[in-house]
Amino acid sequence: xxxxxxxxxxxxxxxxxxxxxxxxxxFMSSDLEWAPAGPAAVEGTVYRGREEASRGFTAxxxxxxxxxxxxxxxxxxxxxxxxxxRVQMRGKTSHIELNQEFASHVVLLGGEVTQIHxxxxxxxxxxxxxxxx
Length: 133
Known about the structure:
Number of helices: 5
Shape: globular
Number of strands: 6
CATH topology: Nuclear Transport Factor 2, Chain: A
Number of domains: 1
Strand content: 35-45%
Radius of gyration: 14 Å
Distance between the termini: 26 Å
Largest sheet: 6 strands, mixed
């Protein structure tokens, strides 16, 4: 099942890169919890459920002209997956460009994503997943 989980996470990332909220949501449980990184994390924003997550995705895409993930490494943790990579972003209005580490710790149950916690550093994600390096 865990290799299937890795593939599901990769499909969610691909859907994000294609800006396809419906496709991304199709892999998520109805009681999904998404805790995004960045300004939303400072505000303590947590999206709950597929519809709320889809609205959150759309809000991000309305702010950023470009917001693309590039995978560096994926770790199969059994019932969760740690995705490590980079994010490239460009503000729609400001045109400010960012290229930085990005990570997601994704918990799955029965082939559905139940939790997504994202981080602006690999070290934060490794710590949250209980991995020391």
